[in-house]
Specification:
With 105 residues, the chain is of the alpha+beta class. 21% of the residues lie in helices and 24% in strands. The strands form 2 sheets. It has a two-stranded antiparallel ribbon with strand order 1-2. Strands 3-4 form a two-stranded antiparallel sheet. The longest helix has 13 residues.
Length: 105
Amino acid sequence: MASAPQIVIKDLRAGQASEASIDFDVHNVDVSVVNSLRRVMWAEVPTLAIDLVDIEINTSPLHDEFLAHRLGLLPIDSTFIDQMKFPRVRNALSSYGSLKSHILS
């Protein structure tokens, strides 16, 4: 008989959103469940990325599209993402009936 699923919290640091963290181990759980949990946690982290790049003069041997793609991969600090104003934001009705802002991609 298989053991019951178990989550062991190794370290928990409460604080502001940018400083909060948790370190845990998962035992006796299917890999697909752990991967789903990882994806949900990753999706909830606010992120910023370079979206539109306009290269006027490129004297490098690299193509413009390659450079734009690489710029989009740069990690950008999103500590103050909740206070930022985005030029391309639309409002959408959430399932609870209130307006939510969504970044257009």
